[in-house]
Specification:
heterodimer, A: 238 residues, alpha/beta, Rossmann fold, eight-stranded parallel beta sheet, B: 355 residues, seven-stranded mixed beta sheet, five-stranded mixed beta sheet, 12 helices, globular
Protein backbone atom coordinates (compact mmCIF):
# COMPACT_ATOMS: atom_id res chain seq x y z
CA UNK A 1 0.00 0.00 0.00
CA UNK A 2 1.37 3.40 -1.03
CA UNK A 3 0.77 5.92 1.74
CA UNK A 4 1.34 9.69 1.90
CA UNK A 5 4.99 10.61 2.06
CA UNK A 6 4.78 14.33 2.87
CA UNK A 7 4.45 15.90 6.30
CA UNK A 8 1.05 17.34 5.35
CA UNK A 9 -1.64 15.92 3.06
CA UNK A 10 -4.58 18.21 2.34
CA UNK A 11 -7.89 16.62 1.32
CA UNK A 12 -10.38 18.76 -0.58
CA UNK A 13 -13.19 18.32 -3.12
CA UNK A 14 -16.83 19.02 -3.89
CA UNK A 15 -19.08 18.48 -0.88
CA UNK A 16 -20.63 15.06 -0.58
CA UNK A 17 -17.87 13.28 -2.48
CA UNK A 18 -16.81 11.42 0.67
CA UNK A 19 -13.70 13.38 1.66
CA UNK A 20 -14.29 12.71 5.31
CA UNK A 21 -14.84 8.96 4.94
CA UNK A 22 -11.63 8.82 2.93
CA UNK A 23 -9.71 10.99 5.41
CA UNK A 24 -10.78 8.88 8.41
CA UNK A 25 -9.83 5.66 6.61
CA UNK A 26 -6.50 7.05 5.41
CA UNK A 27 -5.58 8.27 8.90
CA UNK A 28 -6.39 4.90 10.47
CA UNK A 29 -4.46 3.06 7.74
CA UNK A 30 -1.44 5.34 8.21
CA UNK A 31 -1.48 4.92 11.97
CA UNK A 32 -1.77 1.16 11.45
CA UNK A 33 1.49 1.19 9.49
CA UNK A 34 3.27 2.64 12.54
CA UNK A 35 3.35 6.19 11.24
CA UNK A 36 2.76 8.93 13.79
CA UNK A 37 -0.45 10.35 12.35
CA UNK A 38 -2.72 13.32 13.02
CA UNK A 39 -6.07 14.20 11.46
CA UNK A 40 -7.20 17.82 11.48
CA UNK A 41 -10.95 18.27 11.00
CA UNK A 42 -10.68 21.65 9.26
CA UNK A 43 -14.28 21.83 8.03
CA UNK A 44 -15.34 25.43 8.58
CA UNK A 45 -18.53 24.97 6.53
CA UNK A 46 -20.60 22.16 7.89
CA UNK A 47 -21.43 21.01 11.41
CA UNK A 48 -22.77 17.58 10.31
CA UNK A 49 -20.96 14.33 9.45
CA UNK A 50 -17.52 15.52 10.60
CA UNK A 51 -14.39 13.40 10.89
CA UNK A 52 -14.19 14.54 14.55
CA UNK A 53 -17.35 12.50 15.23
CA UNK A 54 -15.15 9.42 14.78
CA UNK A 55 -12.46 10.59 17.20
CA UNK A 56 -12.96 7.48 19.34
CA UNK A 57 -12.05 5.13 16.46
CA UNK A 58 -9.29 7.47 15.34
CA UNK A 59 -7.74 7.84 18.78
CA UNK A 60 -7.95 4.14 19.55
CA UNK A 61 -6.11 3.52 16.27
CA UNK A 62 -3.42 5.93 17.46
CA UNK A 63 -4.41 9.00 15.42
CA UNK A 64 -4.15 12.40 17.10
CA UNK A 65 -7.29 14.40 16.30
CA UNK A 66 -7.65 18.16 16.03
CA UNK A 67 -10.85 20.06 15.28
CA UNK A 68 -12.17 23.56 14.73
CA UNK A 69 -13.68 25.34 17.74
CA UNK A 70 -16.74 24.03 19.62
CA UNK A 71 -15.81 20.45 18.65
CA UNK A 72 -17.06 21.20 15.17
CA UNK A 73 -20.67 21.52 16.27
CA UNK A 74 -20.97 25.08 14.97
CA UNK A 75 -20.43 26.49 11.52
CA UNK A 76 -18.01 29.18 12.58
CA UNK A 77 -14.48 29.34 11.19
CA UNK A 78 -12.61 29.63 14.51
CA UNK A 79 -9.32 27.73 14.50
CA UNK A 80 -7.69 26.70 17.79
CA UNK A 81 -3.97 27.52 18.01
CA UNK A 82 -2.91 23.90 18.64
CA UNK A 83 -3.61 23.15 14.97
CA UNK A 84 -0.43 25.13 14.22
CA UNK A 85 1.61 22.32 15.77
CA UNK A 86 1.03 20.02 12.78
CA UNK A 87 3.13 22.34 10.64
CA UNK A 88 6.14 22.25 12.97
CA UNK A 89 6.02 18.63 14.19
CA UNK A 90 8.24 16.94 11.61
CA UNK A 91 7.95 13.59 13.43
CA UNK A 92 4.30 13.36 12.52
CA UNK A 93 2.31 13.14 9.29
CA UNK A 94 -0.92 15.08 9.26
CA UNK A 95 -4.05 15.01 7.15
CA UNK A 96 -6.06 18.21 6.77
CA UNK A 97 -9.72 17.32 6.09
CA UNK A 98 -11.17 20.48 4.55
CA UNK A 99 -14.82 21.50 4.24
CA UNK A 100 -16.53 20.93 0.91
CA UNK A 101 -16.27 23.01 -2.24
CA UNK A 102 -13.91 25.90 -3.03
CA UNK A 103 -15.40 27.80 -0.09
CA UNK A 104 -14.12 25.09 2.26
CA UNK A 105 -10.60 25.62 0.90
CA UNK A 106 -10.64 29.24 2.10
CA UNK A 107 -9.11 28.04 5.35
CA UNK A 108 -5.82 27.29 3.57
CA UNK A 109 -5.28 31.01 3.06
CA UNK A 110 -4.82 31.36 6.81
CA UNK A 111 -2.16 28.64 6.86
CA UNK A 112 -0.36 29.87 3.76
CA UNK A 113 2.79 31.03 5.64
CA UNK A 114 3.00 27.64 7.37
CA UNK A 115 2.44 25.72 4.12
CA UNK A 116 5.36 27.62 2.57
CA UNK A 117 7.63 26.01 5.18
CA UNK A 118 6.61 22.36 4.76
CA UNK A 119 6.34 19.65 2.13
CA UNK A 120 2.70 18.92 1.40
CA UNK A 121 0.38 17.19 -1.03
CA UNK A 122 -3.01 18.59 -2.00
CA UNK A 123 -5.41 15.84 -3.01
CA UNK A 124 -8.73 16.44 -4.68
CA UNK A 125 -11.48 13.86 -4.09
CA UNK A 126 -14.00 13.12 -6.84
CA UNK A 127 -17.15 11.03 -6.95
CA UNK A 128 -18.67 10.49 -10.38
CA UNK A 129 -22.09 9.77 -8.82
CA UNK A 130 -22.36 13.29 -7.47
CA UNK A 131 -24.44 15.18 -10.05
CA UNK A 132 -22.07 18.18 -9.97
CA UNK A 133 -19.02 15.92 -10.31
CA UNK A 134 -20.02 13.79 -13.27
CA UNK A 135 -18.23 15.49 -16.18
CA UNK A 136 -14.70 16.67 -16.84
CA UNK A 137 -16.03 20.22 -17.27
CA UNK A 138 -17.71 20.18 -13.84
CA UNK A 139 -14.58 18.87 -12.16
CA UNK A 140 -12.50 21.51 -13.96
CA UNK A 141 -14.79 24.18 -12.49
CA UNK A 142 -14.46 22.90 -8.91
CA UNK A 143 -10.77 22.15 -9.18
CA UNK A 144 -9.82 25.52 -10.65
CA UNK A 145 -11.99 27.42 -8.21
CA UNK A 146 -10.49 25.45 -5.30
CA UNK A 147 -6.98 26.28 -6.48
CA UNK A 148 -7.87 29.94 -6.97
CA UNK A 149 -9.42 30.32 -3.52
CA UNK A 150 -6.77 28.33 -1.64
CA UNK A 151 -3.83 29.76 -3.57
CA UNK A 152 -2.40 26.23 -3.79
CA UNK A 153 -2.02 23.75 -6.64
CA UNK A 154 -3.73 20.36 -6.49
CA UNK A 155 -1.11 17.59 -6.72
CA UNK A 156 -3.24 14.45 -7.05
CA UNK A 157 -6.72 12.97 -7.51
CA UNK A 158 -8.50 10.49 -5.28
CA UNK A 159 -11.40 8.64 -6.85
CA UNK A 160 -14.04 7.95 -4.21
CA UNK A 161 -16.92 7.14 -6.54
CA UNK A 162 -19.69 5.44 -4.57
CA UNK A 163 -23.47 5.45 -4.21
CA UNK A 164 -23.84 5.16 -0.46
CA UNK A 165 -25.44 1.90 0.57
CA UNK A 166 -26.26 1.17 -3.08
CA UNK A 167 -22.64 1.08 -4.21
CA UNK A 168 -21.83 -1.84 -6.52
CA UNK A 169 -18.64 -3.10 -8.16
CA UNK A 170 -19.90 -1.59 -11.44
CA UNK A 171 -20.35 1.82 -9.84
CA UNK A 172 -16.73 1.70 -8.65
CA UNK A 173 -15.42 0.44 -12.02
CA UNK A 174 -17.23 3.18 -13.94
CA UNK A 175 -15.94 5.80 -11.51
CA UNK A 176 -12.41 4.46 -11.82
CA UNK A 177 -12.46 4.68 -15.62
CA UNK A 178 -13.85 8.21 -15.38
CA UNK A 179 -11.21 9.20 -12.82
CA UNK A 180 -8.44 7.90 -15.09
CA UNK A 181 -9.80 10.14 -17.85
CA UNK A 182 -9.96 13.13 -15.50
CA UNK A 183 -6.38 12.47 -14.31
CA UNK A 184 -5.12 12.46 -17.90
CA UNK A 185 -7.11 15.59 -18.72
CA UNK A 186 -5.55 17.55 -15.85
CA UNK A 187 -2.16 15.84 -15.99
CA UNK A 188 -2.51 14.78 -12.34
CA UNK A 189 -1.65 11.43 -10.77
CA UNK A 190 -4.62 9.26 -9.81
CA UNK A 191 -3.49 8.41 -6.28
CA UNK A 192 -6.23 5.99 -5.24
CA UNK A 193 -9.52 4.47 -6.19
CA UNK A 194 -11.29 3.74 -2.93
CA UNK A 195 -13.09 0.41 -2.64
CA UNK A 196 -15.46 -0.58 0.14
CA UNK A 197 -13.85 -3.64 1.70
CA UNK A 198 -16.52 -6.10 0.58
CA UNK A 199 -15.62 -5.40 -3.09
CA UNK A 200 -11.84 -5.62 -2.69
CA UNK A 201 -11.39 -9.22 -3.89
CA UNK A 202 -13.70 -8.69 -6.85
CA UNK A 203 -11.94 -5.52 -8.00
CA UNK A 204 -8.30 -6.33 -7.31
CA UNK A 205 -6.21 -5.87 -10.45
CA UNK A 206 -9.07 -4.28 -12.39
CA UNK A 207 -8.60 -0.62 -11.49
CA UNK A 208 -6.62 2.25 -12.96
CA UNK A 209 -6.11 3.85 -9.55
CA UNK A 210 -4.26 2.16 -6.68
CA UNK A 211 -6.91 0.23 -4.77
CA UNK A 212 -7.47 1.76 -1.33
CA UNK A 213 -9.78 -0.40 0.81
CA UNK A 214 -12.16 1.50 3.05
CA UNK A 215 -14.45 0.60 5.91
CA UNK A 216 -17.57 2.68 6.49
CA UNK A 217 -17.07 4.87 9.53
CA UNK A 218 -19.47 7.74 8.77
CA UNK A 219 -22.51 5.59 9.41
CA UNK A 220 -25.86 6.91 10.59
CA UNK A 221 -27.45 6.09 13.95
CA UNK A 222 -30.08 3.77 12.47
CA UNK A 223 -27.33 1.76 10.82
CA UNK A 224 -25.84 0.87 14.22
CA UNK A 225 -27.63 -2.44 14.32
CA UNK A 226 -26.38 -3.43 10.88
CA UNK A 227 -23.54 -5.85 10.57
CA UNK A 228 -21.23 -3.07 9.41
CA UNK A 229 -22.18 -0.95 12.39
CA UNK A 230 -21.36 -3.62 14.93
CA UNK A 231 -17.99 -2.16 15.92
CA UNK A 232 -19.57 1.14 16.97
CA UNK A 233 -20.70 -0.19 20.31
CA UNK A 234 -19.12 2.82 22.05
CA UNK A 235 -21.74 5.08 20.46
CA UNK A 236 -24.27 3.43 22.72
CA UNK A 237 -22.38 4.41 25.83
CA UNK A 238 -23.07 8.16 25.64
CA UNK B 1 -31.10 7.21 -15.78
CA UNK B 2 -28.27 6.19 -13.45
CA UNK B 3 -28.79 6.79 -9.75
CA UNK B 4 -26.98 9.77 -8.32
CA UNK B 5 -25.78 10.63 -4.84
CA UNK B 6 -27.58 13.73 -3.56
CA UNK B 7 -27.42 15.71 -0.37
CA UNK B 8 -30.87 16.15 1.17
CA UNK B 9 -30.92 19.92 0.93
CA UNK B 10 -29.77 20.11 -2.67
CA UNK B 11 -32.26 17.35 -3.59
CA UNK B 12 -35.06 19.46 -2.06
CA UNK B 13 -34.07 22.42 -4.23
CA UNK B 14 -33.63 20.39 -7.42
CA UNK B 15 -36.91 18.55 -6.83
CA UNK B 16 -38.72 21.88 -6.44
CA UNK B 17 -37.27 23.19 -9.70
CA UNK B 18 -38.27 19.95 -11.42
CA UNK B 19 -41.76 20.35 -9.95
CA UNK B 20 -42.06 23.63 -11.83
CA UNK B 21 -41.22 26.00 -8.98
CA UNK B 22 -39.89 29.21 -10.51
CA UNK B 23 -39.78 31.54 -7.50
CA UNK B 24 -37.73 30.98 -4.36
CA UNK B 25 -37.42 33.49 -1.54
CA UNK B 26 -35.42 32.70 1.55
CA UNK B 27 -32.71 33.49 4.00
CA UNK B 28 -29.77 31.27 4.98
CA UNK B 29 -29.83 29.32 8.24
CA UNK B 30 -28.06 26.09 9.21
CA UNK B 31 -28.86 23.24 8.57
CA UNK B 32 -30.75 24.16 5.40
CA UNK B 33 -28.47 26.74 3.78
CA UNK B 34 -27.65 24.47 0.84
CA UNK B 35 -31.26 25.00 -0.34
CA UNK B 36 -30.88 28.75 -1.04
CA UNK B 37 -27.31 28.12 -2.23
CA UNK B 38 -28.53 25.59 -4.80
CA UNK B 39 -31.46 27.79 -5.79
CA UNK B 40 -29.17 30.79 -6.32
CA UNK B 41 -27.08 28.76 -8.73
CA UNK B 42 -29.79 26.85 -10.60
CA UNK B 43 -32.97 28.96 -10.54
CA UNK B 44 -31.56 31.55 -13.01
CA UNK B 45 -30.74 28.71 -15.44
CA UNK B 46 -34.45 27.88 -15.81
CA UNK B 47 -35.55 31.51 -15.99
CA UNK B 48 -36.75 31.49 -12.40
CA UNK B 49 -36.27 33.96 -9.59
CA UNK B 50 -34.01 33.43 -6.59
CA UNK B 51 -34.03 36.19 -4.04
CA UNK B 52 -32.22 36.25 -0.72
CA UNK B 53 -34.50 38.45 1.31
CA UNK B 54 -33.43 40.67 4.18
CA UNK B 55 -35.20 38.42 6.67
CA UNK B 56 -37.51 35.43 6.96
CA UNK B 57 -40.45 37.80 7.50
CA UNK B 58 -39.71 39.43 4.16
CA UNK B 59 -39.26 36.05 2.47
CA UNK B 60 -42.67 34.72 3.48
CA UNK B 61 -44.35 37.94 2.38
CA UNK B 62 -42.61 37.66 -0.98
CA UNK B 63 -44.05 34.14 -1.17
CA UNK B 64 -47.48 35.66 -0.44
CA UNK B 65 -47.06 38.19 -3.24
CA UNK B 66 -45.66 35.81 -5.85
CA UNK B 67 -48.32 33.21 -5.10
CA UNK B 68 -51.04 35.85 -5.38
CA UNK B 69 -49.70 36.64 -8.82
CA UNK B 70 -50.03 32.95 -9.76
CA UNK B 71 -46.41 31.77 -9.46
CA UNK B 72 -45.38 28.30 -8.28
CA UNK B 73 -43.37 29.43 -5.28
CA UNK B 74 -41.51 28.05 -2.30
CA UNK B 75 -39.48 29.10 0.70
CA UNK B 76 -37.39 27.13 3.15
CA UNK B 77 -35.78 27.66 6.51
CA UNK B 78 -34.91 25.95 9.76
CA UNK B 79 -36.81 26.12 13.03
CA UNK B 80 -36.16 29.70 14.29
CA UNK B 81 -36.64 31.00 10.74
CA UNK B 82 -39.93 29.11 10.41
CA UNK B 83 -41.08 30.75 13.65
CA UNK B 84 -40.47 34.12 12.03
CA UNK B 85 -42.52 33.11 9.00
CA UNK B 86 -45.61 32.16 11.02
CA UNK B 87 -47.41 35.46 10.64
CA UNK B 88 -47.09 35.23 6.85
CA UNK B 89 -48.20 31.60 6.82
CA UNK B 90 -51.38 32.57 8.71
CA UNK B 91 -52.06 35.32 6.15
CA UNK B 92 -51.41 32.96 3.21
CA UNK B 93 -53.81 30.38 4.68
CA UNK B 94 -56.51 32.98 5.10
CA UNK B 95 -55.92 34.40 1.62
CA UNK B 96 -56.04 30.82 0.29
CA UNK B 97 -52.85 30.85 -1.69
CA UNK B 98 -50.70 27.85 -2.68
CA UNK B 99 -47.09 27.66 -1.52
CA UNK B 100 -44.56 25.08 -0.42
CA UNK B 101 -42.64 25.68 2.80
CA UNK B 102 -39.72 23.47 3.83
CA UNK B 103 -38.54 23.26 7.44
CA UNK B 104 -35.24 21.46 8.01
CA UNK B 105 -35.51 21.32 11.79
CA UNK B 106 -32.79 22.03 14.32
CA UNK B 107 -32.88 21.87 18.08
CA UNK B 108 -34.80 24.53 19.99
CA UNK B 109 -36.30 26.34 21.77
CA UNK B 110 -34.86 29.77 21.13
CA UNK B 111 -31.60 29.79 19.20
CA UNK B 112 -31.08 26.22 20.38
CA UNK B 113 -28.52 24.26 18.42
CA UNK B 114 -27.83 23.56 14.78
CA UNK B 115 -27.98 19.80 15.31
CA UNK B 116 -31.01 17.77 14.11
CA UNK B 117 -34.37 17.81 15.91
CA UNK B 118 -38.11 17.28 15.47
CA UNK B 119 -39.06 19.98 17.93
CA UNK B 120 -41.44 21.74 15.54
CA UNK B 121 -44.16 19.06 15.38
CA UNK B 122 -46.63 21.10 17.40
CA UNK B 123 -45.83 24.22 15.40
CA UNK B 124 -46.33 22.47 12.07
CA UNK B 125 -49.44 20.45 12.92
CA UNK B 126 -51.28 22.89 15.18
CA UNK B 127 -50.49 26.03 13.26
CA UNK B 128 -47.70 28.21 14.59
CA UNK B 129 -49.46 31.43 13.72
CA UNK B 130 -52.73 33.00 14.83
CA UNK B 131 -56.25 32.04 13.91
CA UNK B 132 -58.02 28.84 12.85
CA UNK B 133 -55.97 27.29 10.12
CA UNK B 134 -54.11 24.16 9.09
CA UNK B 135 -51.39 23.36 6.62
CA UNK B 136 -50.82 19.98 5.00
CA UNK B 137 -47.57 18.62 6.43
CA UNK B 138 -45.42 15.92 4.83
CA UNK B 139 -42.71 14.26 6.92
CA UNK B 140 -40.40 12.29 4.58
CA UNK B 141 -37.95 9.78 6.07
CA UNK B 142 -35.34 9.55 3.32
CA UNK B 143 -34.07 11.64 0.43
CA UNK B 144 -35.83 9.62 -2.27
CA UNK B 145 -39.11 10.26 -0.48
CA UNK B 146 -38.33 13.98 -0.21
CA UNK B 147 -37.88 14.06 -3.96
CA UNK B 148 -40.97 11.96 -4.67
CA UNK B 149 -43.20 14.09 -2.42
CA UNK B 150 -42.12 17.47 -3.78
CA UNK B 151 -44.33 17.41 -6.89
CA UNK B 152 -47.25 16.16 -4.81
CA UNK B 153 -46.69 19.04 -2.40
CA UNK B 154 -47.02 21.65 -5.13
CA UNK B 155 -50.04 19.87 -6.63
CA UNK B 156 -51.86 19.67 -3.30
CA UNK B 157 -51.02 23.31 -2.59
CA UNK B 158 -52.66 24.26 -5.89
CA UNK B 159 -55.57 21.88 -5.44
CA UNK B 160 -56.55 23.20 -2.01
CA UNK B 161 -55.07 26.70 -2.42
CA UNK B 162 -53.10 26.53 0.81
CA UNK B 163 -49.52 26.08 2.00
CA UNK B 164 -48.05 22.60 2.10
CA UNK B 165 -45.18 22.10 4.51
CA UNK B 166 -42.44 19.55 4.31
CA UNK B 167 -40.64 19.02 7.59
CA UNK B 168 -37.58 16.92 8.31
CA UNK B 169 -34.83 16.92 10.87
CA UNK B 170 -31.43 18.38 9.97
CA UNK B 171 -29.98 14.92 9.44
CA UNK B 172 -32.15 14.41 6.34
CA UNK B 173 -31.11 17.80 4.96
CA UNK B 174 -27.45 17.12 5.54
CA UNK B 175 -27.00 13.47 4.65
CA UNK B 176 -26.22 11.92 1.29
CA UNK B 177 -28.34 9.19 -0.30
CA UNK B 178 -28.90 7.74 -3.76
CA UNK B 179 -31.71 9.39 -5.71
CA UNK B 180 -33.59 8.33 -8.81
CA UNK B 181 -35.53 11.00 -10.69
CA UNK B 182 -38.72 9.10 -11.47
CA UNK B 183 -41.10 11.79 -12.67
CA UNK B 184 -40.56 13.96 -15.75
CA UNK B 185 -39.91 17.64 -14.96
CA UNK B 186 -42.96 19.91 -14.89
CA UNK B 187 -43.10 22.83 -17.30
CA UNK B 188 -44.82 25.63 -15.32
CA UNK B 189 -46.45 26.83 -18.52
CA UNK B 190 -48.37 23.56 -18.77
CA UNK B 191 -49.95 23.96 -15.32
CA UNK B 192 -53.70 24.61 -15.02
CA UNK B 193 -54.71 28.29 -15.13
CA UNK B 194 -55.30 30.11 -11.83
CA UNK B 195 -58.31 32.31 -12.57
CA UNK B 196 -58.09 33.88 -9.10
CA UNK B 197 -54.52 35.15 -9.56
CA UNK B 198 -53.94 38.90 -9.66
CA UNK B 199 -52.31 39.12 -13.06
CA UNK B 200 -53.55 42.58 -14.06
CA UNK B 201 -56.85 43.68 -15.60
CA UNK B 202 -55.21 44.43 -18.97
CA UNK B 203 -58.03 46.92 -19.39
CA UNK B 204 -60.49 44.05 -19.89
CA UNK B 205 -60.88 42.02 -16.70
CA UNK B 206 -62.56 43.02 -13.50
CA UNK B 207 -60.01 43.78 -10.78
CA UNK B 208 -59.38 40.91 -8.38
CA UNK B 209 -58.37 41.21 -4.75
CA UNK B 210 -56.46 38.82 -2.49
CA UNK B 211 -56.66 39.65 1.20
CA UNK B 212 -57.14 38.20 4.67
CA UNK B 213 -59.22 41.00 6.19
CA UNK B 214 -62.85 40.19 7.06
CA UNK B 215 -64.02 42.95 9.38
CA UNK B 216 -67.69 41.97 9.47
CA UNK B 217 -67.91 39.14 12.05
CA UNK B 218 -70.57 37.34 10.01
CA UNK B 219 -68.41 37.46 6.94
CA UNK B 220 -65.39 36.41 9.02
CA UNK B 221 -67.34 33.49 10.52
CA UNK B 222 -68.44 32.34 7.04
CA UNK B 223 -64.85 32.56 5.84
CA UNK B 224 -63.63 30.46 8.79
CA UNK B 225 -66.37 27.88 8.30
CA UNK B 226 -65.58 27.58 4.62
CA UNK B 227 -61.88 27.10 5.39
CA UNK B 228 -62.78 24.50 8.00
CA UNK B 229 -64.91 22.59 5.49
CA UNK B 230 -61.83 22.48 3.27
CA UNK B 231 -59.70 21.15 6.15
CA UNK B 232 -62.33 18.48 6.85
CA UNK B 233 -62.18 17.37 3.20
CA UNK B 234 -58.39 17.14 3.45
CA UNK B 235 -58.62 15.11 6.66
CA UNK B 236 -60.90 12.67 4.83
CA UNK B 237 -58.93 12.43 1.60
CA UNK B 238 -55.23 13.15 2.07
CA UNK B 239 -53.93 10.99 4.92
CA UNK B 240 -50.79 9.04 4.09
CA UNK B 241 -48.87 6.53 6.14
CA UNK B 242 -46.69 3.47 5.81
CA UNK B 243 -46.66 0.33 7.92
CA UNK B 244 -43.85 -2.12 8.37
CA UNK B 245 -44.48 -5.51 10.01
CA UNK B 246 -47.38 -4.16 12.08
CA UNK B 247 -49.65 -7.14 11.41
CA UNK B 248 -49.88 -9.37 14.51
CA UNK B 249 -47.12 -7.33 16.15
CA UNK B 250 -46.68 -7.43 19.92
CA UNK B 251 -45.50 -3.83 19.97
CA UNK B 252 -46.11 -0.93 17.60
CA UNK B 253 -43.57 1.85 17.20
CA UNK B 254 -44.98 5.10 15.88
CA UNK B 255 -42.44 7.48 14.35
CA UNK B 256 -42.11 10.02 11.55
CA UNK B 257 -38.97 10.94 9.60
CA UNK B 258 -35.57 9.77 10.84
CA UNK B 259 -36.86 8.08 14.04
CA UNK B 260 -38.91 5.74 11.85
CA UNK B 261 -35.61 4.43 10.51
CA UNK B 262 -34.31 4.08 14.06
CA UNK B 263 -37.51 2.25 14.99
CA UNK B 264 -37.12 -0.17 12.09
CA UNK B 265 -33.55 -0.87 13.21
CA UNK B 266 -34.86 -1.41 16.75
CA UNK B 267 -37.58 -3.75 15.47
CA UNK B 268 -34.93 -5.89 13.80
CA UNK B 269 -32.98 -6.08 17.06
CA UNK B 270 -36.16 -7.04 18.95
CA UNK B 271 -36.90 -9.74 16.39
CA UNK B 272 -33.54 -11.34 17.26
CA UNK B 273 -34.87 -11.60 20.82
CA UNK B 274 -38.15 -13.10 19.67
CA UNK B 275 -40.26 -9.95 20.08
CA UNK B 276 -42.36 -8.98 17.07
CA UNK B 277 -42.42 -5.20 16.70
CA UNK B 278 -43.88 -3.22 13.80
CA UNK B 279 -43.48 0.39 12.73
CA UNK B 280 -46.35 2.74 11.89
CA UNK B 281 -45.01 5.79 10.07
CA UNK B 282 -47.27 8.75 9.35
CA UNK B 283 -46.17 10.39 6.09
CA UNK B 284 -48.68 13.21 6.54
CA UNK B 285 -48.55 14.44 10.12
CA UNK B 286 -51.48 16.72 9.28
CA UNK B 287 -53.88 15.29 8.35
CA UNK B 288 -52.89 12.64 10.87
CA UNK B 289 -53.78 9.02 9.97
CA UNK B 290 -55.74 8.46 13.19
CA UNK B 291 -57.98 5.63 12.02
CA UNK B 292 -55.23 3.60 10.41
CA UNK B 293 -53.16 3.87 13.56
CA UNK B 294 -56.15 2.84 15.68
CA UNK B 295 -56.64 -0.23 13.50
CA UNK B 296 -52.99 -1.21 13.95
CA UNK B 297 -52.96 -0.59 17.72
CA UNK B 298 -56.33 -2.27 18.40
CA UNK B 299 -55.17 -5.67 17.14
CA UNK B 300 -55.39 -8.31 19.88
CA UNK B 301 -51.69 -9.09 19.49
CA UNK B 302 -50.58 -5.54 20.41
CA UNK B 303 -49.60 -5.00 24.04
CA UNK B 304 -47.98 -1.57 23.84
CA UNK B 305 -47.49 1.43 21.59
CA UNK B 306 -44.22 3.38 21.76
CA UNK B 307 -43.60 6.69 20.00
CA UNK B 308 -40.04 7.50 18.96
CA UNK B 309 -39.31 11.18 18.48
CA UNK B 310 -36.43 13.63 18.37
CA UNK B 311 -38.11 15.95 20.87
CA UNK B 312 -39.52 15.60 24.37
CA UNK B 313 -42.74 14.00 23.14
CA UNK B 314 -45.02 15.94 20.81
CA UNK B 315 -46.55 13.50 18.32
CA UNK B 316 -47.45 11.30 21.29
CA UNK B 317 -50.51 13.55 21.74
CA UNK B 318 -51.80 12.53 18.30
CA UNK B 319 -50.92 8.91 18.99
CA UNK B 320 -53.02 9.03 22.19
CA UNK B 321 -55.91 10.57 20.23
CA UNK B 322 -55.60 7.79 17.65
CA UNK B 323 -55.25 4.91 20.10
CA UNK B 324 -58.22 6.15 22.20
CA UNK B 325 -56.90 4.48 25.32
CA UNK B 326 -57.18 0.97 23.92
CA UNK B 327 -53.48 0.29 24.55
CA UNK B 328 -50.79 1.89 26.76
CA UNK B 329 -48.79 4.56 24.93
CA UNK B 330 -45.28 5.54 25.98
CA UNK B 331 -42.48 7.69 24.63
CA UNK B 332 -38.78 7.39 23.92
CA UNK B 333 -36.67 10.14 22.44
CA UNK B 334 -33.89 12.67 22.61
CA UNK B 335 -34.26 16.40 22.27
CA UNK B 336 -32.26 19.45 21.41
CA UNK B 337 -30.04 18.00 18.72
CA UNK B 338 -29.36 14.41 19.76
CA UNK B 339 -30.43 11.38 17.77
CA UNK B 340 -31.54 8.35 19.80
CA UNK B 341 -29.84 5.04 19.08
CA UNK B 342 -31.78 1.90 18.11
CA UNK B 343 -30.58 0.34 21.36
CA UNK B 344 -32.21 3.10 23.42
CA UNK B 345 -35.40 2.44 21.48
CA UNK B 346 -35.09 -1.30 22.18
CA UNK B 347 -34.73 -0.63 25.91
CA UNK B 348 -37.85 1.56 25.92
CA UNK B 349 -39.78 -1.12 24.04
CA UNK B 350 -38.84 -3.81 26.52
CA UNK B 351 -39.76 -1.56 29.41
CA UNK B 352 -43.17 -0.90 27.80
CA UNK B 353 -43.68 -4.67 27.53
CA UNK B 354 -42.61 -5.14 31.17
CA UNK B 355 -39.53 -7.20 30.26
Amino acid sequence: MILPEKQITIISGHYGTGKTEFAVNLAITMAGSKKQTALVDLDIINPYFRSYERRRELESAGVKVYVTSHQGTMDIPALPPEIMSVFVNTEQQSLLDLGGDPVGAHVLGYYRPQLEQVDFDFWFVINQRRPENATVAQIRHYLQATEAISGQKVTGLVNNTHLGRETSADVILQGDAFAALVATEFNLPLIYTTVERKFVTELSGRLAGTLFPIDLYMIKPWELSNEEGGHFAWLLEK
Amino acid sequence: MAKELWKGNEAIAEAAIRAGCRCYFGYPITPQSEIPEYMSLHMPKVGGIFLQSESEVAAINMVYGASGAGARVMTSSSSPGISLKQEGISYICSAELPAVIVNVMRGGPGLGTIQPSQGDYFQATRGGGHGDYRVIVFAPANIQEVVDLMQDSFELADKYRMPVMMIMDGMIGQMMEPVEWKKPPVNPEDLPAKPWATTGTKGIHEPKAIHSLFIDPNESNDHNMRLDAKYQRIMADEQRYETSETEDAELIFVAFGTPARLARAAARLLEEEGIKAGVFRPITIWPYPYDALYQAAAQDSVKAVVTVEMNTGQMIDDVRIAVRGCKPVSFVGQAGGRVPTPQEVVAAAKSALGR
